[in-house]
Amino acid sequence: MPTEASETLEDIIAEPVLCTIHDADVELSLHDQVWDDGSYLFFGYNAKNDPLVTIAGQIASLQVEIIPDGAPERTHPFLSAISEGEAITWYENALKTLSSAFVFLREFEEKRFFLLDGSLNSETEKYYNRPDLQDRLDTFSSVMRDNSLPFSRKAEQLAPVLTDLEHILAANRIPDELKYEESLFYLIILRLQKHVQWLIGETGKTEENDLPGFSLRARHLADVLKNIKDDHENVARGRIPVPTNEEKAAILKILEEHAGIMAMEKGSQEAIAHIGRELELCQKIWTTPFVDWQTRLDSATRAVNLISDAINDTEAAALESKKRHAAMPELSRYIKEANVRIKELDETGYAAITGPIADRFLANINETRRSLEKAPLTREELAAVLKINSIRVSITEKDGALSTSICLYLADNSYTYALHYLSVLISNGRIQEMKILGK
To answer: Which of 148, 165, 172, 310 is the most exposed place for a label (fewest CB within 10 A)?
Structure first.
């Protein structure tokens, strides 16, 4: 059944299993976690509460954890692309990458709106007489297209237009921040430049000299137009740094590698293994200023789509895994095992290990006691004052068989142990490890 878009991990509630362990009421609940890389971790089931139990005549808090076969289990749709236990670093950085892509796309949209949707032209018109300039361009175009007029007549009609254009252009005061090759002003300059070049060419073909200085005036206007065009282009293109040959070669290599990854079959193990690398390449492309805008736009859009799909797939996988484990399977055999092992510890096990525990810790504790100017303890004195602060019972299943480890945390409020806790790990009735915590 497909997962609803609005459903989250928090919406999935695992009802606790109520049971009795060593005469204490215990609530066993789902033990899970979500990592920064989106992985869903199922560790098993543990006690939601830490009830008090009596062990060897001592009251201690009880912690219980059940680790079923296969746990801990890590769920992530991109696990096949990494080594076991390794973090999916590109996913951890996905939101940062996504944010960067959205910033670029927003800036692109703002520039697109400014350049193409009228904002640039409306701002630019404050610094030149657009109606008069457009009017003279229209007149110039109309005279050029009128094939009924001889050139001498065209020159006669265009002479005042040339003079007007010089005056209009001389008065333009467009600031550098509005000089773009996409502006209407720049496009008018280009059209006028073509018209004037045509006019100069036609003037050179005729011997008529009815308008003294006409050719000189046209050439002067051509110089004015060229200067304006060059200035606009230099300012506009100066915003984009000129790449070195090494930079050109590097971005070409990046574009080729990206094209190769995009050619991989979507959803294949090969494509999945390259998602992190593709996101790196996309970001390099859209942040390279001398790459054309469309390619930069495509790479940012590609990154957004990749990350959006990855987030959706990861969340769906986590939801499916949590639903499966939140069903809370039959736990009676684990509970029975816990009761048997704790009973053994209570009746005979603890008394049998107090001597070895005292032997292990006596030298360390007396060394610390001497530094605190406290009298040293004998082996028997230490064994007599050992106190159980808490007990953690871990039941692990592997290939259908159960094994139990019990960790005792020993402490004493009278500071017999010189402010240190003692940890004793017992596995299947035998001491496996003893250590002083915090030292």
So the answer is: 148
CB 405, CB 426: distance < 8 Å: yes
List CB contacts of 271: < 8 A, sequence separation 6 or more. Answer: 261, 264, 265
- Exposure string over 199-218, b if 16+ CB within 10 A, otherwise e: beeebeeeeeeeeeebbebb
Find the radius of gyration of the CA atoms of the chain. 41
Q: Strand 40-47 and strand 24-34: pairing? A: antiparallel
Residue 44 Rama label (left phi>0; alpha psi -120 to 50; beta): left
Q: Where are the alpha helices (DSSP H) in 181-331?
A: 184-205, 214-238, 245-262, 269-273, 275-286, 293-325
What is the rounded distance in angstroms from the CA atom of residue 333 to the CA atom of residue 356? 31
Beta strands, E only, 35-107: 40-47, 52-55, 58-67, 73-75
Which amino acid would we find at residue 219?
Answer: R
Judge contact between 420 and 436, C-beta under 8 A.
yes
Let me know: does 186 contact 229? Beta carbons within 8 Å. yes
Phi, psi for 420 (deg, rounded to 5): -110, 150
Residue type, 222: A
C-beta separation of 151 from 159 below 8 A: no
Beta strand residue intervals within 48-190, DSSP E: 52-55, 58-67, 73-75
b/e sequence 334-346, b meaning 16+ C-beta within 10 Å = bbebbbebbeebb
Q: Answer yes or no: are the C-beta atoms of 185 and 169 closer than 8 Å.
A: no
Q: What is the pLDDT of residues 73-130, one digit of tens each?
A: 999 888 765 666 677 888 878 878 888 888 888 887 887 777 767 788 888 888 888 8
Q: Which of 282, 297, 329, 421 is nearest to 70 (CA)?
A: 329
Residues in CB range of 235: below 8 A, 6 or more apart: 176, 179
Determine the length of the chain: 439
- The answer to whether 420 and 90 are in contact (CB under 8 A) is no
Residues 6+ apart with CB under 8 A from 171: 128, 129
pLDDT digits (tens, 9 = 90+) for 200-255: 888 877 765 556 678 888 999 999 999 999 888 888 877 777 788 999 999 999 99
Query: Strand 401-410 to strand 58-67: parallel, antiparallel, or no bridges (unpaired)?
Result: unpaired
Q: Which residues pair with 78 in a beta bridge?
A: none
Q: In the numeric block, which tokens belong to residue 279?
A: 């996101």
Report residue 22 as tokens.
């060593």
